[in-house]
Structures are given as structure tokens and as C-alpha cells.
Design a protein that fits this description.
The chain is of the alpha+beta class. About 30% of the residues lie in helices and about 30% in strands. The chain contains three helices and four strands; from the N terminus they run αβααβββ. The radius of gyration is 13 Å and the shape is globular. The mean pLDDT is about 85.
């Protein structure tokens, strides 16, 4: 029985709560590709804009450790 929190998460994002989804690449059950598909189905005001936003590198001491997409109060990091 599949369950989703996407409607509740969408509501929180639409209310202006800062949300960060950090998707790793070592989880066999739900990897970053699974997370990417999931957040793309969220119903929130910035969804289309996020699809058109390129990833930028998140760096520490000059070394990239992740790629980030950000629209207003919603960030997706992989």
C-alpha cells in the first residue's frame, strides 16, 4: 500500500515554510532519481520554475559536494 506525503509537503511549501530535500546516492530503495520524480509531482506555486532551474554546485572549501536547485523557500539537493 503506497503512501505519500506530497500533498502535505506541498501545502507547507505553499505556506512559505523553508523546505530542503537532500537526496543521497547510496540508498537502494529510493535514490536521487526516485526523489527527483517525487518532488516533480508536488503541487506548489514554484514547481514549473524549479523544473527550469539548473543545478548549481554546493561547495565546501572549494570542493563541490552536492548539486542544488532552489526556488524561493524550496531547495532540492542531490
Amino acid at each position: 500500500d503506497a503512501r505519500t506525503w506530497l500533498p502535505q509537503l506541498s501545502e507547507l511549501v505553499n505556506l512559505g515554510l523553508k523546505v530542503l530535500i537532500w537526496a543521497g546516492d547510496a540508498d537502494i530503495k529510493c535514490d536521487k532519481e526516485c526523489d527527483t520524480r517525487s518532488y516533480s509531482m508536488m503541487d506548489w506555486y514554484g514547481n514549473q520554475m524549479l523544473h527550469n532551474t539548473p543545478f548549481t554546485n554546493f561547495t565546501i572549501e572549494g570542493s563541490p559536494i552536492a548539486a542544488v536547485q532552489n526556488v524561493d523557500n524550496f531547495s532540492f539537493t542531490r
